[in-house]
Amino acid sequence: MSSKSILVIVRHPPHGSSWVREGLETALVGAALGQPPTLLFSGDGVLALLAGQQRGALGQKGSAAMLEGLSLYDIEPLWYDRYSLEARGLTLDQLMSGCQPADIAGMIARHDVVMSF
Amino acid sequence: MASQGLTYALMVQGAPYSQQASHSALRFAEALPAQGHRVATVFFYHDGVYNAASMMTPPTDEPHLLERWRALHQTQQCELLVCVASAVRRGLLDHGETKRHGHPHPTLEAPFELTGLGQLMQAAHHHDRLITFAP
């Protein structure tokens, strides 16, 4: 397989839909194939990074446990858009460990493929 | 232009008739040959898997999306890949899954194929462009 770099962007909140889980599963498959993608949380996607989350009301497994295990697959850090965080009245100390602010424009420019969830 | 034609992979995440994503993806794919390009892989994920519902029966005065995908497969020889994990939990089963789970009739048929996310990654790596069509 060629060595294209892949950026997975999560734009949806963690509960109420399966977007976050499906985005994370895509990232995990990339890692399983030997090329861990870069993972970026933007817009309402930053809400998935809030610490201390339980599973959702939809009978879904929730995404917090998946997120905490991503470093085992070399998907780290968990990049986030600081403006999305600020716009929602949140600060870094409310997020789970392993999160870092990203330069979104530069990050998109540096990757060959962008997948958006 | 034709000699420099690109191969495209499309990821379709929107449900047919509920959202614009499927229509936009089809129109994009159908327009590619005029520019010397072609779509090589369409990957259906999330609610996009409903595009493969073999019993899709829209009113006659609306576009028949299933027929449009089949025509695309014919004219551009593209593969129509459906994420198996997204599809089976939503009731879209090919012949093999139908037998395995003891259901009477398949709800997904060729040229659509059930595949895994690994195929999406392969498509992203092998083709020149990957475009996401999300709701």
From TrEMBL, chain A:
InterPro entries given in the database record: DsrEFH-like, Sulphur_relay_DsrE/F-like, Sulphur_relay_TusC/DsrF
Record protein name field: tRNA 2-thiouridine synthesizing protein C
Originating organism: Kushneria avicenniae
Family: Belongs to the DsrF/TusC family.
A Pfam entry, by short name: DsrE
Recorded superkingdom: Bacteria
TrEMBL record, chain B:
Stretches that traverse the bilayer: none
Subcellular location: Cytoplasm
A GO term from the CC aspect: sulfurtransferase complex
Keyword Cytoplasm carried by entry: yes
Domain of life: Bacteria
Cited InterPro entries: DsrEFH-like, Sulphur_relay_DsrE/F-like, Sulphur_relay_TusD/DsrE
Molecular functions (GO terms): sulfur carrier activity; sulfurtransferase activity
GO biological process terms on file: tRNA wobble position uridine thiolation
Keywords: Cytoplasm, Transferase
Main location: cytoplasm
Family assignment from sequence similarity: Belongs to the DsrE/TusD family.
Name of the protein in its database record: tRNA 2-thiouridine synthesizing protein D
Organism field: Kushneria avicenniae
